[in-house]
Amino acid sequence: MTTVKPFLIFISLLLICTLAYSHNSNLGLYEIVEVFDGDTIAVNMAGKIEKVRLIGVDTPETKDPRKPVQCYGPEASLYSHAILDHAKIKLTSDPLSTNRDRYDRLLRYVYLKDGTLYNKKLLESGNARAYTGFPFSKSDLFIKTAKISEQNQVGLWGSCKTA
Question: Is the pLDDT of residue 163 over 60?
Fold first, then answer.
């Protein structure tokens, strides 16, 4: 009986630690409340809704009232909705980029809960082009990733005449 008590204490502590870890595993994650198109989302940041523009990627337009829906826009938007709707994500800024763009959107890299860099995933899947109109630290990686998708005719590269 004396060995059972320490064992139960150990199991109880293990259970408490596991519950505490699982509760804290969402720390630093933000819930996506809206996916506007492939490269713009809104997240809940402690009760404040912030628009976020993904750094270094440009998906074909679907929402810009000044432009027609672009080739592969609906597909890229559906792709982002399928992965991002109500997802919990991590956001990181880039030391070479500004904090916000001219539309007051946060400029961020988006990491999925499993650690996948979503900005890069958009390029790999052919749902975006590399957007290099401003400096950012992952530009070489993004250009290389987009080039591979283009060479393999993935996504928009295989569907649009002038991707």
Answer: no
Catalytic residue among 61, 75, 108, 129: 61
Distance CA 134, CA 127 (A): 20
Q: Specify the DSSP class assigned to residue 104.
A: S
Q: How far apart are CA 98 and CA 32, in angstroms?
A: 22
User: Tell me, what DSSP letter sits at residue 117?
Assistant: B
The residue with tokens 């295989």 is 158
Give the integer Cα–Cα distance in Å for 85 and 82: 6
**What tokens were used for 60?**
């074909």
Which among 34, 100, 105, 124 is annotated as catalytic?
A: 105
Q: Quick check: is 102 catalytic?
A: no
103-140 confidence digits (pLDDT tens): 999 999 999 999 999 999 999 999 999 999 999 999 99
Domain ranges of the chain: 30-159
Is residue 105 part of the annotated active site? The answer reads: yes
Q: What is 30-159's CATH number?
A: 2.40.50.90
| pTM metric for this prediction | 0.83
CA distance 162 to 12: 62
